[in-house]
Amino acid sequence: MVSVQTLSEDERRTVARWALACAERVVPLFDADADSRAQIRDAVERTRAYSAGEGVTAQEIRKRLVAATAAKAATTPAGAAAARSVAQASAVAHMGAHALGAAAYAAKAVALANPENPEAVADEIAWQMAQLADAERAILRQLPEVGTDSSGPLGPGLLATGQLGAAITELQARIGHS
């Protein structure tokens, strides 16, 4: 049985654009060796192509963990969160719910990079919401509330807890998730 968190291929391609916008905003926080930076750039380009209707979904699914591996080489916690944001955006080809993970990791990266600014996360989420097109918003409304459906990334676990869970809860509230 297919998870509600998967979304259709067309829907995944649509929300991949927003997920990538969120991730690209924090990519400058990622610093690592040249190979890892190249992996992040490649994941960004592949996700951009995927969102534009190019690329083969099965191939993108196979490559979705490349950016997550690159995150291990980050020189700062903010950089690791930025790379994980790119990894989540890349993983939208697999499950649409990863779009919210990309936004949450971007917010976490911003928070880690700006510990002196208590408004950093709120400002980042406001920026993310301003980037969200109506069609993307409608698609994201279909996803279950974070922490309630165990059939995908929004289930109980990493994206449902701590700073990531709080960011996704806020995003879903602003998107109009009940």
- Rg over C-alpha atoms, rounded to the nearest angstrom: 15 Å
Span of the ends, CA to CA: 24 Å
Quick check: average pLDDT?
95
| Overall geometric form | globular
SSE string: HHHHHHHHH
Helix content: 55-70%
Low-confidence stretches: none
Total number of beta strands: 0
Class from helix and strand fractions = mainly alpha
Count up the domains. Answer: 1
Helix count, per DSSP? 9
Strand % is under 5%
Sketch the major β-sheet: none
Describe this structure in words.
- This protein has 9 helices and no strands.
- It is mainly α.
- The protein has one domain (about 10-175).
Write the layout of secondary structure elements.
Layout: H1 9-26, H2 34-51, H3 57-62, H4 66-71, H5 77-90, H6 98-113, H7 120-131, H8 134-140, H9 162-175
Helix pairs in contact: 1-2, 1-5, 1-6, 1-8, 2-5, 5-6, 6-7, 6-9
Concise account of the structure shown:
The protein has 9 helices and no strands.
Defining traits:
0% strand; 62% helix; 178 residues; mainly alpha
